[in-house]
């Protein structure tokens, strides 16, 4: 066994390719922004809302010139679908809007711009934001 050599199955990792394609400094800055946004969303997660923060699929497949970050906040507004039932006194719309405004101010201070949208689909209320340089 001591004569066997180890080989990498894949020559480079996903992170290494992103660093090469977009630049290590840019990816480091985006990673830092993603972690900060996750911290800002903890309050919403604690009350039971579903949050997702990360790179867009087009960024992960290296099809963008600059990396883009997406933020999604969602909740079930119906009784079906296996999610929470939010109604009446448990309306978190104002809390979500305040958090979204905080995130927009933060990324603007870092030199990034945002676009956002909100809609209902299949009993879910969804807020989504795209962040890019």
Fold topology:
Blueprint: H1 14-22, H2 24-40, H3 42-46, E1 50-55, H4 57-60, E2 68-76, H5 93-109, E3 113-121, E4 124-132
Helix pairs in contact: 1-2
Structural summary, described in words:
With 133 residues, the protein is an alpha+beta fold. It has one domain (14-132). Helix content is 39%, strand content 25%. The chain contains 5 helices and 4 strands. The chain has a 4-stranded antiparallel sheet. Strand 3 (113-121) and strand 4 (124-132) form a beta hairpin. Helix 1 (14-22) crosses helix 2 (24-40).
Helix content: 25-40%
Q: Main sheet: which strands, in order across?
A: 1-2-4-3
Strand content: 15-25%
Task: Give the helix tally.
Answer: 5
Stretches with pLDDT under 50, minimum 5 residues: 80-85
Extended strand count: 4
Structural class comes to alpha+beta
Instruction: Tell me the quaternary state.
Output: single chain
- Total number of distinct structural domains: 1
The SSE string, one letter per element, is HHHEHEHEE
Overall shape: it is globular
Q: Termini distance?
A: 51 Å
Task: Provide the residue-averaged pLDDT.
Answer: 83
Largest sheet: 4 strands, antiparallel
What is the radius of gyration?
A: 19 Å
Give descriptors for this structure.
133 residues, alpha+beta, four-stranded antiparallel β-sheet, globular
Brief characterization of the structure:
The chain is an alpha+beta fold and 133 residues long. Helices cover 39% and strands 25% of the residues. Helix 1 packs across helix 2.
